[in-house]
């Protein structure tokens, strides 16, 4: 590597290719001035055919290997920058969310901005503790050695966020990456272009631009991106796309966290507080127009509670979202393709008991309750929209009937039970799901002390709080043995006497 400085430009010869590269040296971080081979603005070439994406990834790796991100002070600075960004750019971000999804300002703050601020503050408060080595026991036969687990950053992470919560599901894993000391490529959803543009504009302005790169990409460019080698991939989205990402990751043996979805059941049995249950179900289901991976996907209700539940659901819908078929403060459907998929679920024998109004041109879709059976099209796939099927449980053992139905579907990301029966709660232990909430729904996501993640077809790995820090970290085992003390028993030849001693200690 050879380079020299001329005015405001650095000219240097890169060993990875033939030619001269011009690089803007107006670095925002003085620590990067001495990084050999660092290219601040990929794509400014004289005679070079290097892929800008490959160069961007190499730049991030160079920065990681400089050791800057290992510094706890640097990590705290980045977390504070996220908080500052959200505080100062709330108005611009709210406008972007309104443009993409017609999110009401209150919902934008609750589900996107406020919850991320809470998580960033939690990480900032606990990062010193998280990053310390954790001492573990050492067996007596290894004395006087000491053992510990030391969290280390994985390196270069790829974060792919979805369109339904484009800020929360971008910045929440970014907080985990920052806490762990990783650098990252951030790929926002092309289906939410306004928020993707917001990320591309403001993340480099507030966070270290040498550590985090926002790349806007459609399917074709994303495919190219996935051919590159990353140290970790965090993906939130559909199961179909996750399979493609998992295959791409397997080519490089890259570990992944996949946050997916599924048909999350909501079971109502032996419930004494139907009104409260209805209000909580309505909020969890219809916030963000039902475009939430852990929203209740369908309700299984004890037959003698069905009529009361439906009446209370209707009241709760009017209270929270306004008159039937003319809702207020309701997020829109993301695009016409998704709208048509939801629209195709009607005229299949269901009974509409509330709502049903929809307009493809405006992408508005009123909250809708339907009575149906297990064979209806909406029960064959995750709905991911403002349609809530209600199915009666008619047997003498409704919880057993409900669990039998749930087990016939792929493993859900969440399971919900509204019941005052201790026996029903106990029965839910056999229900495999990513998470579980009793007498509530969706609110488990707001607790940063709880790991969030799926199982089986709803994904794998965890995020939020310490679980997110763990996901983006490698927990390195460390074993320290003093050389001043050396016990002869550990070396051959192993006599009958030494074997007795070794067996005694190893059996303890």
Can you put this structure into words, describing what you see?
The chain is α/β, with parallel strands linked by helices. The protein has 3 domains: 2-50, no CATH class; 68-260 and 463-471, Aldehyde Dehydrogenase, Chain A, domain 1; 265-448, 3-Layer(aba) Sandwich (Aldehyde Dehydrogenase, Chain A, domain 2). Helix content is 37%, strand content 19%. It has 15 helices and 21 strands. The chain has helices at residues 52-65, 72-88, 90-101, 105-131, 168-180, 193-206, 219-226, 239-251, 274-286, 306-321, 336-343, 398-407, 422-427, 465-471, 496-506, and strands spanning 2-6, 9-13, 20-24, 134-136, 146-153, 156-160, 183-187, 212-214, 232-236, 256-259, 265-268, 298-302, 351-354, 358-359, 364-365, 368-371, 387-393, 414-418, 435-438, 459-460, 473-480. The radius of gyration is 27 Å and the shape is globular. The termini are far apart. Mean pLDDT is 90; it is low at 1-49.
Q: Architecture of the largest domain, according to CATH?
A: 3-Layer(aba) Sandwich
The amount of helix comes to 25-40%
Our count of helices gives 15
Which regions are unreliable across 5 or more consecutive residues at pLDDT < 50?
A: 1-49
Indicate the overall shape.
Answer: globular
Q: End-to-end distance, in Å? A: 57 Å
Whole-number total of structural domains: 3
Question: Please, what is the CATH homologous superfamily of the largest domain?
Answer: Aldehyde Dehydrogenase, Chain A, domain 1
Strand order of the largest sheet: 13-16-17-12-11-18-19
Mean pLDDT: 90
The share of residues in extended strands comes to: 15-25%
Q: Count the E strands.
A: 21
Radius of gyration: 27 Å
Q: SS-based structural class?
A: alpha/beta
Broad CATH class of the largest domain: Alpha Beta
